[in-house]
Amino acid sequence: MHNILIVDDEPLICMGISNLLVGAGLGIGQIYMAHNAYEALDYLRMEDIDLLITDIQMGTMSGLELMQQAKLIKPWVQTIVISAHETFQYAQTAMRLGAKDYLIKPLSGAQVMDTVRDVLLQTGKSDRPDAVYSPNVQEDFRMESPLEERMALLRELMAGERFPESREQLALQYGIELRGPYFAVITAELRLSDDLGERDRSLLRYAALNIAGELTGQGCAALGFYMGPASIGLLLQWDEAQYAALGPNKINGIDMTGRSLHFTIKRVLKLDSIVGISQILRGEAFVPELYEQARKAARWHQELPDHEVFYYGDFKWSQSSQEPTEEELAAQNNMTVELAVQYIHKHYSQKGLSLHEVAQGTYVSPNYLSYLFKKSTGTNLWEYVTKLRMEEGRRLLLETRLRRYEIAERVGYDSPEHFGKIFKKYYGISPSELKK
Fold first, then answer.
1. How many CB atoms are located within 10 Å of the residue 262 CB?
2. 363 burial class (0-12, 13-18, 19+ CB within 10 angstroms)?
3. Mean pLDDT rounded to a whole number for the chain
4. Per-residue three-class SS string for 123-157
5. How far apart are CA 173 and CA 146, in angstroms?
6. What is the bridge-based pairing of β-strands 182-190 and 51-55?
7. Residue 56: what pLDDT?
8. DSSP 256
9. Structural domain total, the chain
10. Cis before residue 181, ω within 30 degrees of 0?
11. pLDDT value for 127
């Protein structure tokens, strides 16, 4: 069953789309409605959302900004954009951010149904029993079989062996060029059962490489290659315009790709994987170094076996690039969580506070901060923010004569209605019931 979040500042539109989908027989579980982007972000953090349907123009935070934040929280969430604007720039930006479709108001019921059905069929592919590997893997992933010589040249390129010669051969024989000028590398090691035969292993590796290629179809060029019998790699490259489009926090894009790859391999192939993510560097000469960064990052799984997606920049390497000792790593991690707690206590009442913003204040990626925070405190970061907001909201309700909208403002909510929903979910009673 799929859960859908509908976001529009016009309640009648939310209700209309919801009513249209309720009895459509599309395998829909829950439909949530939010009337601004801040409410939507809370639903994305708290609920298991599969599809986001959002308007663009919604006051303080636009639907496009919501899409960016949603990708940081759950990169695998699919999006359909609805808008009264036919402006090409809006549509282009929405599609670059991964929107599956861009629908113009006034909406046609048939068009909404067809679009939602198509998106859910794609996301629901892995819910079928035959999505677990069987001969169907070969049917589900129709990809040109990669030539072994091409794979060998890409591996040589990554390893820095015969770099100029390998690059030239790839360009001449296969039309593969390193244009960049910005590059990064993602690696994924599949955790395959010892019981699998060689053919099955090859097909699963083949399917994983196809998944990786599909995930990187927008915003950058990607070259997929086999690293070993159970591992794949991706060389990502951006031109100047694509790199600028990543925005000021460029690591978010590659981090989302890595997390999406891990999630999709798990969901579609039912396989665990260890993903390593390099930094982004300028210049093709750094490609072997980026490959080594991704491999080094993935090796941290040996020290942190309950974590599976690793970004190289999350670890403080010595000048000799030696891995931190166990004591150094523990000290780094404790400091990171302490900084996060301090930042949250100072800013929890800020409207629009995000995991990404907290991560910026602690100098690690959002993915790694989420892992460390949960491991250290036993609760996820956003649950901690909500706890502080609810406790302060409850105190203000009991100890002051502030109106509900004033309390909502003071604890970081855009509307008293949304504050009331979260409060009731947290305490089991509404703010008005508490006052009585």
1. 22
2. middle
3. 85
4. HHHHHCHHHCCCCHHHHHCCCCCCCHHHHHHHHHH
5. 14
6. unpaired
7. 87
8. H
9. 3
10. yes
11. 39
Continuous H helices in 231-364: 240-245, 251-269, 287-298, 326-347, 355-362
Same domain? 144 vs 270: yes
Q: Is 340:381 a contact under the CB 8 Å cutoff? A: yes
Long-range contacts of 129-135 (CB under 8 A, 24+ apart): 131/268, 131/269, 131/270, 132/269, 132/270, 133/200, 133/203, 133/204, 133/207, 133/269, 133/270, 133/271
Let me know if residue 319 belongs to a domain. Answer: no
Are 378 and 396 contacting, i.e. CB atoms less than 8 angstroms apart? no
Helix-then-strand count for the chain, H and E:
19, 11
Which of 127, 151, 166 delimits the end of a domain? 127
Residue 320 is assigned to a structural domain of this protein: no
The pLDDT value given to residue 144: 47
Q: What is the pLDDT of residues 202-235, one digit of tens each?
A: 899 999 998 888 776 557 888 889 998 899 999 9
The predicted pLDDT at position 160 comes to 86
Residue with tokens 């599309």: 26
**Both tokens of residue 339?**
């900084």
* CA 251/CA 427 separation, integer angstroms: 37
Report pLDDT digits (tens) over 35-87. 888 889 989 988 889 999 999 888 778 888 888 888 878 888 899 998 887 77
| Helices 366-377 & 381-399 angle (0-180, nearest 10) | 70
Cα 357 to the chain's mean position, in Å? 15
SS3 78: strand
Provide the 10 A C-beta neighbour count for residue 406: 12
CA distance 375 to 386: 18
Q: How far apart are CA 207 and CA 264, in angstroms?
A: 11
List pLDDT tens digits, range 226-265.
998 899 999 999 999 888 877 777 777 788 889 889 988 9
Q: Which domain holds residue 184?
A: 130-314
Structure tokens at 190: 């599949």
